[in-house]
Amino acid sequence: MATKVSPVEKETPIEKLKSELLSVTSSNEWDEKAGFDINENESTVSITVVGASGDLAKKKIFPALFALYYEGCLPKHFTVYGYARSKMTDAELRNMVSKTLTCRIDKRENCGEKMEEFLKRCFYHSGQYDSEENFAQLDKKLKEHEGGKVSNRLFYLSIPPNIFIDAVKCASSSASSGNGWTRVIVEKPFGRDSDSSAALTKSLKQYLTEDQIFRIDHYLGKELVENLSVLRFSNLIFEPLWSRQYIRNVQLIFSEDFGTEGRGGYFDHYGIIRDIMQNHLLQILALFAMETPVSLDAEDIRNEKVKVLRSMRPLQLEDVVIGQYKSHSKGGVTYPAYTDDKTVPKDSLTPTFAAAALFIDNARWDGVPFLMKAGKALHNKRAEIRVQFRHVPGNLYNRNFGTDLDQATNELVIRVQPDEAIYLKINNKVPGLGMRLDCSNLNLHYAARYSKEIPDAYERLLLDAIEGERRLFIRSDELDAAWSLFTPVLAELEEKKIMPEYYPYGSRGPVGAHYLAARYNVRWGDLGLDQSA
Predict the structure, then answer these.
(1) Could you list the active site residues?
(2) Could you give the CA distance from residue 234 to residue 240 in angstroms, rounded to a whole number?
(3) How far apart are CA 189 and CA 210, in angstroms?
(4) How many CB atoms lie within 10 A of CB 192?
(5) Which residues pair with 439 in a beta bridge?
(6) On the CB side of 45, how many CA atoms lie within 13 Å of its CA?
(7) Could you tell me the residue ranges of all domains in the chain?
C-alpha cells in the first residue's frame, strides 16, 4: 500500500531527489519481498551464462548468482544454464561451480544445504557460439524447465567480443523467449575506438532493441560508486560545495600491485587507457560531475551523464602521460617486465600506465582539472576518488603554525577498493598549550561501521538486469560520447608510436605523471605523506 506524503510547497529538484534517495536508503535491512516481486505471475527466469567454462563465469558470475539465491533475491522459478564449446555433463558443471561458491561471512547457516539446492538448478549445454542449431537445442531444454509458464530469459555473454554478434544472432533467432522478456548482458570491451564501437552497436541492434542490451561495467556496481549519488544529493553539506567555486581539482585513481600475468596477449591489444580509463574511470567521473537528475529513473540519470561526457574538452596529447613497467628486483625477488610475458611482443609500446588531465567545459566545472591515473605493477592496489578543495581565503593560520596549509587543503576521499571508506580531511588544533595545526581524518570505514559483508558488484548488476533496472548499465549514446573523447588521442599515440616512460615494477609510476599534475598546480593525493587515506 502506498504511503501518503504531505505535499511540499515549491519542492526543488534536489529536494525531490534527496527524498527519493532517502526513501530507498533509509532502511538498514533490505526488504526482499518489497524489492523483488518477479514471482507475482508465477513466471520463470532462465539465466544462460554463455562462456560458462571461462574464468569470469567461474570466479564472478556463478558465485554472484549463488549469493543472490542465498539472500533470497532470485525468483521462485529460476534455472541457470551454462553454455560453452567444452564438452561437459551437468554433474561436471556443478562440480566446477561448487569449487568457487562461498557463503557470506555473516550468514553461514545452512550454507551446504543452500549450495546443494542452488547446484540442482544448474545445468549445462555444449554448443558452438555461431550455431543456431545448438541454440535451438538449448531452447528446447529451457522450455522443459519452464513448464509452460511465462518465460523470461537472460543471456550473459562471458565471451570474447569477436564472437558477440554470432552468439547474439543465434540466441535471438533460436532461443529467445516467446512470451516474456529476453535480455542480454554484454561485457566490455565495447570496441577499440569510436568506429569499432559503433559497428558493434549497429550489429547488436540488428537482433536486439536498446532496451534488451545491458552493457555491463562492473565498477558501476561497486558499493562506493553507487554511494556517490547518495553522498552528494542527500547531504546538504556537500551539494553546495560541488562546483568550481569550492573544488580545486578531482582525482580518479586506479592502481594494481600486479602486472598482466596470465592475460598479456589480451591486454596488449587494448592497453590501460581502453581497459580502465575509457570505461571505469570515465563512468565514475560522469556520475561524480553530473547535474541533479530529474529523478532516480535510469533514463534521467543516464541523460545527465551523457551531458557531462558531451561537455568534455577534447583530450590533447600533451595532457596524457603513458608508461610501461620494467623488471625490478626487491627483497631477493625479481619481478618481470611487461614484455617478459611470452604472449606480448618484445617491442610492444602498449601502455600499462596512463595519466590524463581532463576538463569539463560547463558552468559548474569550468577550469577544474579532473586528473585520471591508472596503472599496473604499482606500489599498491587501490581505486579511489579524491576531491581537493580550495584554500580558505585570507586564512588566519596560514603562517607559523606547523602544518603547511598551502598544501594541507580539505580533501574528500572516497575509497572504492580495497577497504571501502570515506574520509574527510580537515585542519584542526593539536591538543596542548601551544598553537599547532594538524591535518586529520574524519572517516567512515565500512568494515568498522557495517557488520554485513558488502555484496560483490556482479551481484548488484545481475539482480538489476533480472529486474530490468538499467540505471547502472551503459546506454549506446554514453558509449559513443566516451569513445569520442579518447579515440583521437589513442589514434595519435599509436600513429606517432609514442614511447612509454618506463617505471620499475612495484614503484609509484612514471615521473611524467607528477609533472603533468604539477602543470595544473596539483599534487597526487595518494602519494602524500598520509597514506592512511
Answers:
(1) 280
(2) 12
(3) 18
(4) 18
(5) 427
(6) 25
(7) 32-187, 220-389+476-527
Question: How many Cβ atoms are within 10 Å of 71's Cβ, its own excluded?
Answer: 16
Closest Cα partner for 197 from 465, 493, 488, 477? Answer: 477
Beta strands in 327-465 (DSSP E): 328-330, 333-335, 353-358, 370-375, 382-389, 411-417, 421-429, 437-445
For residues 457 and 472, the answer to whether their CB atoms sit within 8 Å is no
| Distances 416 to 247, 277, 383 between C-alpha atoms, Å | 20, 15, 5
**CATH of region 32-187, choose from 3.40.50.2000, 3.40.50.11270, 3.30.70.270, 3.40.50.720:** 3.40.50.720
Place of cell 580537515: 426
Helix, strand, coil percent values for the chain (each to nearest 5):
40, 20, 40
Task: Give the separation between CA 123 and CA 151, rounded to whole angstroms.
Answer: 17
Tally of CB atoms within 10 A around 235: 11
Alpha carbons 377 and 257: distance in angstroms, whole number: 5
The third-level CATH classification (topology) of the domain covering 220-389+476-527 is Dihydrodipicolinate Reductase; domain 2 (3.30.360)
Residue 253, φ and ψ in degrees, nearest 5: -120, 130
Per-residue exposure over 105-137, b if at least 16 CB sit within 10 Å of its own CB, e if not: eeeeeeeeebbeebbebbbbbbbbbebbebbeb
SS3 sequence of 283-329: HHHHHHHCCCCCCCCHHHHHHHHHHHHHCECCCCHHHEEEEEEECEE
CA distances from 307 to 8, 89, 246, 405, 503 (A): 29, 49, 22, 36, 36
**pLDDT tens across the length of the chain (533 residues):** 444 444 444 455 455 554 555 454 444 433 433 334 444 457 899 999 999 998 899 999 999 999 999 888 999 999 999 999 999 999 999 999 998 888 765 566 677 888 899 999 999 999 999 999 999 999 999 999 988 888 999 999 999 888 999 999 999 999 999 899 999 999 888 989 999 999 999 999 999 999 999 999 988 888 889 888 999 999 999 989 999 999 999 999 999 999 988 788 889 999 999 999 999 999 999 999 999 999 989 999 999 999 999 999 999 999 999 999 999 888 888 999 999 998 999 999 999 999 999 999 999 999 999 999 999 999 999 999 999 998 877 666 665 554 455 556 889 999 998 888 898 888 887 787 777 777 778 888 877 787 777 788 899 999 999 999 999 999 999 999 999 999 999 999 999 999 999 999 999 999 999 999 999 999 998 775 444 44
Distances (CA, A) of 312 to 35, 281, 306, 359: 37, 14, 10, 6
533 CB-side CA count, 13 A: 23
Q: How far is residue 211 CA from its own chain's centroid? A: 20
Taking Cα atoms as reference points, which of 157, 230, 143, 164 lies closest to residue 465?
Answer: 157
